[in-house]
Amino acid sequence: MTQLTALYFPETDVSTETVTQELLLFEKIFFYQAVEGDETASSATGENLCSGYPPVPFGKDLDRFKTLLRDLKGHEDEFYGGQLSSMHSSENRGEKTVTGLITSITGTKESTENEKKAYEALWQSRLLLKLAEIMTKEEQELQDELTALSRKEELLFDTLKGDQELAKTLTPPTSHPKTPPVRPEIILKAWGHLFLADTQETPWVLTTADPEYGEILFETSESLSQQRPLRLCRIPLPDTTGMDSDTYITNRNNFRKEGKETLEVFGNLLEKTAQQGQQDNTIKDWAGMAADLTRLLATSDTWDQSSMRPPTSPQPHLELYLCSHPLHTLIAHFCRFKGEINSKNQPAHAIIAVKSSKKIQCG
């Protein structure tokens, strides 16, 4: 059996710590980097279990890209809206659109209209993903500060509410909902352009920890085939939080050695399903597979079952979905891509793995 790997999407900054649970079932996880040699991206850690690479390297244009990125920093809203009218750089003054700015910095190319559009789309996509990566980090830092502040508010509230008169004037601490800095559809479209331009043979399983991105592709699949993707299985995942890197790697290796036979059957069945699609025995086969994997994860001596998450904390599951079309067809349809598509030897049916704490309704 070939190694079962997965391509993480659409984030461009992923570390092993992000995908410890997924790596129990996959040999290795890859992800795209917006820029080659990117020091801010979390490169492979541990035993090279999670590895990033740029599907469309800039090469000699890397310095130009960094120049453009610096000019755009602080003007993200204008970039996402396609307008840069508020930019005051003398070098870029007069440029009103992202396309115009890219052209002014990269220079014009002797090419067809379609080639120019594809060239500009890739520049915009990589810029957007890189800016989103930076904004997400800044948003997370702010969220951490707000969380710390909320904890202080809660302690103060608990301390002061014993005073009956003062308690009447107190209001409970407010929560700070986390909102993504960029709309998921925009991020996924940018990532999709990189996927379609990638000439390497990418893993044929997509995986994400954000159900919203999975749902976007499910809707795309439904628009093509008039039916929802089939959920093959829903596998409860053990708690891997709090482990240091060495402990996790040791436990993971022991688990995969202990469950080698079951994991091989899992990989073979997944590959067969991706190639053949839904057959008469597909649902039955996957019901048995889900039971075997659930039993393996629940009874393994590798994980301390007594230290699992608190009862009030939702348990994450890995949900596997079968789509009616190959992955490159789904991505091209979502991106409204009109150019030539490189199938990259993808199987006839896309497999999408979504880590979720709540059930997604599919057919």
Description:
With 363 residues, the protein is an alpha/beta fold. The protein folds into two domains: 56-191, no CATH class; 198-356, no CATH class. It is built from eleven helices and seven strands. 31% of the residues are buried.
- Principal-axes shape call: globular
Number of helices: 11
Classification by helices and strands: alpha/beta
End-to-end distance? 29 Å
Mean pLDDT, to the nearest integer, reads 79
Task: List the domain count as a whole number.
Answer: 2
Compute the CA-based radius of gyration: 23 Å
Range of helix content: 40-55%
Strand tally: 7
> Percent of residues in beta strands?
5-15%
Any low-confidence stretches, pLDDT <50, length ≥5?
A: 83-98, 306-311
Major sheet strand order: 3-2-1-4-7-6-5
**Main beta sheet:** 7 strands, mixed
Secondary-structure map with pairings?
Layout: E1 5-8, E2 28-32, E3 50-53, H1 62-72, H2 76-80, H3 98-106, H4 113-160, H5 164-167, H6 184-197, E4 205-208, H7 211-225, E5 230-236, H8 245-258, H9 260-276, H10 282-299, E6 317-322, H11 327-335, E7 351-356
Parallel strand pairs: 1-2, 1-4, 2-3, 4-7
Antiparallel strand pairs: 5-6, 6-7
